[in-house]
Write a structure and sequence with these properties.
Elements: H1 3-30, H2 37-55, H3 58-68, H4 74-92, H5 95-118, H6 121-142, H7 150-158, H8 164-186, H9 203-217, E1 224-228, E2 234-238, E3 241-246, H10 253-272, E4 278-280, E5 286-288, H11 300-314, H12 318-331, H13 340-346, H14 364-380, H15 388-400, H16 426-445, H17 449-454, H18 459-468, H19 478-486, H20 493-507
Parallel strand pairs: 1-3
Antiparallel strand pairs: 2-3, 4-5
Zinc ion binds at residues 262, 266, 304, 307.
Length: 509
């Protein structure tokens, strides 16, 4: 067996371990009885230790080094390059720091839950301070390029090769123009009625509608399923097995409908990765791709571009509602009072609010930019933890024009910082940016899409995404893929164009 084949087999073993732990995590969120918590924590910890030993082992390092001196084609070289990237990251961190991050993060998360409930920032502050320190230590171990900053090393975990400065240069003009667009819409006096979103929608009917949409858009239910959780997510846990979850609110059906479409966008990316396929090894032999970077997703930003595209560009579009109107009215009788246009406008209302996860398409990115600026300053040491609430509220007022009533609706609302996810937030907006830029290209190449969507045919879009985005795995970096597909580097214009055309149409401006 070639060293390359051995390396891929090693990766397959690690990916299988990872899929076992993902299955346990999925079960914990969906069906596990409360009493199983302690045993589940032990199971997860045991697997995490086994995975860490395996992915930082000398055997693996030797295999990667051997492959680096083999003669390989471009695809195989990209595969080895990504194995190297993961291995170096694993081995740069001392085990003691990994353990400390996990231990402190787990406690900090518990403290955060209570602090948010009791609106008590002071209780959380010392733990946040510890997590910032530990994350800075982690970043220092990873290292960053000359001219860069500590934050880059953290961002790189979620968005390989992205740099804070480059992200800022895209976010800044986007933020300014979005703020003025939001002001124009909210001050127009033409806010559509939200009555269609408030019709009574029984849970079982919502589930039926969600399944109807999943089948139509092409989520493969022979290789996936949909369950209910408090916090919706998608887990692409193994070849042929992708799990989605959603939650139902009987007085607000768009929550579940768009939550399901969002997770299905992630899910169809997972299903489109070549996990069940093989690729050619150096001797021409067929190598299973599962467990290699060739069957893995590029970055959180690209992942999010897929979920946001199905949720917003497709699901919040007029052609989609022309198709879904009949079925939705059959499921929710009261919806029959409203026509396609009224529903389309209602699901696109822009209204500044305090909570990011409930934000509309127009204001969502402003919430993300706020967090990006603040976490970057905390990691750089330019913002002390004690000053966080004040800085948050001031910036929030500038961006969204609202006075934050308390920290629970402000800097305490997200779970991310409590377990050390610094550098994660920007990937949400990067996802929207990639989605809009891909979408612009897609619209140019497929002028018949609206007519297809109106008939409930989404196959051409999914096929295009499979071929151009999903099928490559991690062969290219996100920026490269974007240039390859759209012939331009990532920029803010396509998202701004998309939002201003659509939202002005919604508001009749
Ligand atoms: Zn997502």
């Amino acid at each position: 067996m070639s060293k390359y084949a051995q390396l891929c087999a090693h990766g397959r073993g690690s990916a299988t371990l990872k899929s076992i732990s993902a299955l346990l995590a999925w079960d914990q969120e969906t069906y596990m009885p409360r009493g199983g918590g302690d045993a589940r924590a032990e199971q997860m910890a045991l697997l995490a230790g086994m995975m860490h030993d395996r992915t930082s082992s000398k055997d693996l390092g030797d295999l990667i080094a051997a492959c680096e001196s083999e003669s390989l084609d471009d695809q195989q070289r990209a595969c080895v390059r990504e194995f190297r990237r993961d291995y170096d990251k694993q081995t740069k961190l001392p085990k003691s720091l990994v353990e400390e991050l996990a231990r402190t993060g787990s406690k900090a998360q518990d403290v955060w839950k209570d602090a948010r409930k009791n609106n008590d920032f002071k209780a959380f502050a010392p733990w946040l301070s510890k997590m910032v320190d530990l994350s800075r230590q982690k970043a220092t171990c990873y290292g960053f390029e000359p001219g860069g900053e500590v934050y880059d090393a953290l961002l790189d975990e979620y968005e390989p090769n992205a740099k804070a400065r480059q992200v800022e240069s895209i976010f800044k003009p986007l933020g300014e123009q979005l703020s003025s667009l939001v002001r124009e819409l909210t001050e127009s006096g033409k806010t559509p009625s939200d009555a269609p979103t408030k019709v009574h929608a029984p849970k079982d009917r919502q589930h039926a509608l969600g399944m109807y949409v999943l089948r139509a858009i092409g989520f493969d239910l022979n290789a996936g399923r949909l369950d209910v959780t408090t916090h919706p997510f998608c887990e692409g846990l193994a070849p042929g097995d992708t799990r989605l979850t959603t939650r139902y609110d009987e007085r607000y059906f768009p929550g579940a409908l768009y939550g399901t479409m969002h997770e299905a966008g992630h899910g169809m990316y997972e299903q489109g990765l070549p996990k069940c396929k093989t690729h050619k090894g150096p001797g021409g032999d067929a190598i299973e791709s599962f467990g290699t970077p060739l069957a893995d997703s590029i970055s959180l930003g690209i992942h999010e571009s897929q979920s946001r595209m199905w949720e917003n560009m497709v699901g919040r579009g007029r052609p989609f509602w022309k198709w879904l109107h009949k079925e939705a009215c059959d499921q929710f009788a009261e919806l029959g009072k409203f026509d396609v246009d009224e529903i389309y406008r209602a699901v696109n209302i822009v209204r500044p609010s305090f909570i990011r996860v409930e934000a509309d398409e127009g204001t969502y990115n402003l919430h993300v930019m706020l967090r990006f600026g603040i976490e970057r300053a905390m990691i750089a040491g330019d913002l002390s933890i004690g000053d966080l609430p004040g800085a948050w509220n001031e910036r929030f007022k500038q961006l969204l024009g609202l006075d934050v009533p308390d920290d629970a609706h402000g800097c305490l609302q997200d779970v991310h910082w409590s377990f050390g996810l610094f550098g994660y937030f920007p990937t949400y907006t990067l996802g929207n940016l990639y989605a809009a830029q891909f979408w612009e290209t897609i619209r140019q190449r497929m002028p018949g899409l609206d007519a297809e969507f109106t008939r409930g045919d989404f196959s051409q879009l999914l096929q295009w995404l499979n071929q151009n985005i999903h099928g490559h795995g991690r062969r290219y970096r996100a920026g490269e893929l974007c240039e390859m597909v759209t012939r331009r580097p990532l920029e803010s214009r396509p998202l701004l164009d998309y939002l201003s055309v659509k939202l002005r149409d919604v508001y009749g401006l």
